[in-house]
């Protein structure tokens, strides 16, 4: 668990255009579920990728637990990410996909087994562990991708439109599952979506981006009540 702070953080892909993320200042509390919402192209993914270390911060800083991580490599940040497209290794089983994250950091075998079993239980993946992604549905792949992302006990959990490739019914059930899992883990979470319903039902607070600029950040109740 951790706090996150963006301090006047900007990203300019192209100096002839306004910054994709423009002087973003935002504090995220320990254990909070923060949703970044806004139309396509508003800078949500870029803001999240800057936190994960997948995109440079051109101006300003990002702090995790009060520590400046702006110059740290992605793998040294303890931020894990779930992508819209799942990004599972196609030739590995679910078990291997989940374990891979731990083998990479030289976790002892017995501990890997235990961690994989834990993640599988939390996400109801037990029956999928020996299947490859091609043998799974989209929703099942997404659960494996989530398992892979939490198995290392990250300080910060990032999700970029994780439900957008699922059908409407599955989106609703997976929404609830992610929210419950986040509360169980207590992990500080940043969740990107363009869907207001997702923002409203999942976030402790919602940060609204437009053209790279933070418009407002508040609880769903405050944000979406129209007196
Ligand atoms: P969102 O996630 O809200 O859809 P993005 O962060 O993907 O927004 O994009 C914000 C802006 O930055 C858009 O104008 C987009 O075209 C631009 N952009 C995103 N990624 C790149 C990139 N790799 N190179 C150049 N411009 C990019
Ligand atoms: P999102 O779903 O986050 O809006 P997009 O579909 O816009 O993502 O972009 C997909 C990929 O293309 C991302 O890796 C993004 O960084 C890149 N990208 C987006 N806009 C541009 C751009 N204007 N120039 C170059 N790459 C871009």
Automatic annotation (TrEMBL):
Residues 4-227 form the ABC transporter domain. GO terms for cellular component: ATP-binding cassette (ABC) transporter complex, substrate-binding subunit-containing. GO terms for molecular function: ABC-type transporter activity; ATP binding; ATP hydrolysis activity. Keywords: ATP-binding, Nucleotide-binding, Sugar transport, Transport. One of its GO terms (biological process) is carbohydrate transport. It comes from the Bacteria. This is Multiple sugar transport system ATP-binding protein. It comes from Micrococcus cohnii.
């Amino acid at each position: 668990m951790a706090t996150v702070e963006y301090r006047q953080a900007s990203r300019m892909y192209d100096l002839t255009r306004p910054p994709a993320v423009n002087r973003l200042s935002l504090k995220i509390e320990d254990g909070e579920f923060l949703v970044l919402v806004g139309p396509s192209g508003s800078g949500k993914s870029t803001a999240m990728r800057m936190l994960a270390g997948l995109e440079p911060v051109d101006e300003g800083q990002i702090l995790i637990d009060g520590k400046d991580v702006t110059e740290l490599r992605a793998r040294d940040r303890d931020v894990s990410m779930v992508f819209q497209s799942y990004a599972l290794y196609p030739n590995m089983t679910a078990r291997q996909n989940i374990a891979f994250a731990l083998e990479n950091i030289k976790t002892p075998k017995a501990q890997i087994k235990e961690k994989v079993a834990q993640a599988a239980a939390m996400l109801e993946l037990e029956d999928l562990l020996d299947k490859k992604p091609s043998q799974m549905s989209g929703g099942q792949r997404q659960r494996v991708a989530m398992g892979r992302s939490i198995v290392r006990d990250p300080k910060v959990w990032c999700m970029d439109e994780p439900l957008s490739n699922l059908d409407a019914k599955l989106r609703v059930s997976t929404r609830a599952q992610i929210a419950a899992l986040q509360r169980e883990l207590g992990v500080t979470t940043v969740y990107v979506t363009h869907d207001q319903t997702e923002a409203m039902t999942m976030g402790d607070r919602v940060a609204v981006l437009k053209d790279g600029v933070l418009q407002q950040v508040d609880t769903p109740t405050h944000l979406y009540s129209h007196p």
